[in-house]
Design a protein that fits this description.
It comes from Phenylobacterium kunshanense. This is DUF1579 domain-containing protein. The protein contains no helices and ten strands. The chain has about 160 residues and is an all-beta fold. It has one domain (about 5-160): Calycin beta-barrel core domain (Lipocalin, Beta Barrel), CATH 2.40.128. A ten-stranded antiparallel beta barrel has the order 1-2-3-4-5-6-7-8-9-10.
Length: about 160
């Protein structure tokens, strides 16, 4: 039996994302301001797993923005929980993580961060996962989780 098939503790949750993808992005033009206008742009991503699935790295290219980003995901074996970190080419800094897991085919991850100088609660959601598609979305709450505003979606289509 292959090493990664004997572990069904959650470390394989992101295996669906391994490989190359084209990505359709929708990003809210102004967050936390009641805006309903979106920037739409294309991108590409490549994800690979490391350490038998305990870590994966997603390299994102946003050609229209002349920017890149990297998601680094690590799996906590004891707590069966993922931590997701983001690095933007705008700063090169590792941003605050979100934490969570998959249940019934949906991944929910939460954390705290800053939007500019405003503290926000952050939620990531993975859903619509098939062999050739997936969707990620990001939402912020500026009122300690009372209301949420989705401000970015990424629709993935497998290319290789």
């Amino acid at each position: 039996m292959a090493y990664d098939t004997v572990h069904d503790d959650g470390r394989r949750d992101f295996h669906f994302l391994y490989g190359r993808w084209s990505v359709q992005h929708r990003r809210l033009k102004a967050r936390g301001a009641g805006c309903d206008e979106w920037d739409v742009f294309a991108g590409a991503s490549f994800t690979q797993g490391l350490m038998g699935g305990l870590v994966n790295v997603e390299d994102n290219d946003f050609p229209e923005l002349r920017a890149q980003g990297v998601a680094i995901r690590t799996f906590d074996i004891e707590n069966r929980r993922w931590s997701i970190y983001w690095v933007s080419s705008a700063s090169g800094l590792l941003q605050a993580p979100v934490h969570g897991r998959f249940e019934d085919g949906i991944g929910l991850f939460h954390g705290e961060d800053l939007d500019g100088d405003r503290p926000v609660k952050v939620a990531y959601r993975w859903d619509g996962i098939t062999g050739s598609t997936a969707r990620w979305s990001q939402a912020f709450s500026y009122d300690d989780g009372e209301t949420w505003e989705t401000n970015w979606t990424m629709d993935f289509t497998r290319t290789a």
